[in-house]
Amino acid sequence: MDNLFSEGLTLMAFGMGFVFVFLTLLVFVTGIMSRLVTRYFPEPVAAAPKSRPQPVAGAPADNNDELVAVITAAVHKYRAK
After folding, report:
1. Which 8-state DSSP code applies to residue 35?
2. Is residue 74 domain-resident?
3. Is the pLDDT confidence value at 44 over 80?
4. Residue 56 belongs to a domain
5. Residue 16 lies in domain
6. Residue 66: half-sphere exposure toward Cβ, Cα within 13 Å
7. pLDDT digits (tens, 9 = 90+) for 8-41
8. What is the spatial distance between Cα 46 and Cα 48, in angstroms, rounded to a whole number?
9. C-alpha angle 76/77/81, rounded to 5°?
10. How far is 37 from 7, CA to CA, in rounded Å?
11. Is the pLDDT score of 49 beyond 60?
């Protein structure tokens, strides 16, 4: 019985050791692959959005009638609920 128990412990140690070594190797290989991919295939840099010119205080508004109509319709629809 003692021999069977020691064989079980040995098999358990080898199995757990193999899993530990495999997972450790997997972590390192994944890290190396990640560095290689980011080095040779970098993400494209998005262009900065163009800023719209700000209206000057006191200047006449540029035909905002359509915008006012859309906002008014949205407010009326929201209040109608």
Report:
1. H
2. no
3. yes
4. no
5. 1-43
6. 2
7. 999 999 999 999 999 999 999 999 999 999 999 8
8. 6
9. 110
10. 44
11. yes
